[in-house]
Amino acid sequence: MNLLTQKRLAGEIMKVGERKVWIDPTRLEDVSRAITRDDVKHFISIGVITAKPSIGNSRGRLKKRIAQKKKGRQSGHGRRTGKKTARTPRKESWMNKVRALRDELNKLKEEEKITESQYRKTYKQIKGNLFNSRRHMRENLKLTK
Question: How high is the pLDDT of residue 1?
């Protein structure tokens, strides 16, 4: 018994593919006599013809990986592509360093731990890339915290 027409009609009615149409094996003879769309709709309404559930890819593993990445995991040397300067450009790292040094210098000036002339001289040294870090700058100014 050929049920291709019935499957095609059922697929169109339920808006699924023919592969997703399931026909109750005990009622195959009744379904084979269904010729019109109304006949097929009747079998759908009583549950003889149903649509199989769609199967998708599970996102469980991906969600776990995303959660780990939020914590900073899974970003070791093996995961990295491109140069160090591609991940954080030279200009960006320079800006971060200079801003940190200038903030520290302003703080020292406001606390009156350095004079105006020291401030100006150190400011220019920062611009000239003399210091590697805040600590290096403080040591150069011979200040201890």
Answer: 76
What pLDDT score does 143 carry? 65
pLDDT, averaged in runs of 10, over the chain (145 residues): 92 96 95 95 96 94 97 95 94 97 97 94 97 95 66
Q: How many CB atoms lie within 10 A of CB 14?
A: 16
97 token code pair:
């360093």
* CA 61-70-89 angle, 5° bins: 120
Please give the domain boundaries of the chain with CATH numbers for all domains. Answer: 4-51 (1.10.1650.10), 86-140 (1.10.1200.60)
Cα Rg of the chain, angstroms: 36
Side-chain-facing half-sphere of 128: CA atoms under 13 Å = 8
Please state the separation of Cα 9 from the chain's center in Å: 41
Strands 49-51 and 21-23: antiparallel
Strand spans (E) along 21-128? 21-23, 49-51
Give pLDDT, residue 144.
47
CA angle 62, 67, 68 (to 5 degrees): 95
